[in-house]
Design a protein that fits this description.
With 187 residues, this protein is mainly α. The chain has a single domain, classed as Substrate Binding Domain Of Dnak, Chain:A, Domain 2 (Up-down Bundle). 86% of the residues lie in helices and 0% in strands. The protein is rod-shaped, with a radius of gyration of 28 Å.
């Protein structure tokens, strides 16, 4: 008798908790699907940003800085306009790569936060834990934020790709100019 009444109390509490914590059925199917698909895009952007090799980027920037220091140490008074353009472009590549490498960490953190927020919001919508008048606002805010983060990630990845290509093109030219400098020839 004691055990049956205890089991009955537990059953009543369980049913009471289930009926008060969540309303049965998802009222926001469309929004939930949209958030789930947005979550996939944010996850892809996150993994793409994580694949950016910050060590490689830093090594490229270090190579440019080393060449720049050699020019300063050689106390080159003048050089041709072509050589000046090459070194100026090489320095611009360095700054762009360092900027992208500096953005990588905060961007990864923001993408991870966005993934968590979208997951939580999707869960809350599935279980009808959000008031009807607030659901549209939360969904639009999170999708806008996620879209902006995806766009920033895309821009950063494209910028690194472009600057890496420019670095690859300019490196042989700067190496030959540095060899001329080391041989004390004018360029």
């Amino acid at each position: 008798m004691k055990h049956t009444s205890f089991a009955l109390v537990l059953f009543v509490l369980f049913i009471g908790f289930q009926t008060t914590s969540c309303t049965w059925g998802n009222k926001y199917v469309k929004e939930t699907r949209m958030l789930d698909s947005m979550l996939v895009f944010v996850a892809k952007a996150d993994s793409a940003v994580k694949t950016m090799d910050s060590v490689k980027i830093s090594n490229y920037a270090h190579q440019v800085e080393k060449d720049d220091e050699l020019i300063k140490m050689a106390k080159v008074d003048s050089m041709s306009s072509v050589a000046t353009d090459i070194f100026r472009n090489f320095n611009m590549v360095r700054w762009s790569l360092l900027t992208a490498a500096g953005k990588r960490g905060p961007l990864i953190r923001e993408l991870e936060k966005s993934q968590q927020q979208i997951t939580r919001l999707s869960h809350d919508l599935q279980h009808n834990s959000i008031k009807a008048d607030s659901a549209a606002f939360y969904v639009s805010f999170e999708t806008k934020r996620a879209s902006e983060l995806i766009e920033v990630a895309d821009i950063s990845i494209n910028d690194v790709s472009k600057q890496t290509a420019i670095y690859t093109i300019l490196l042989p030219k700067t190496d030959s100019l540095m060899n001329l400098l080391q041989e004390h020839k004018k360029f």
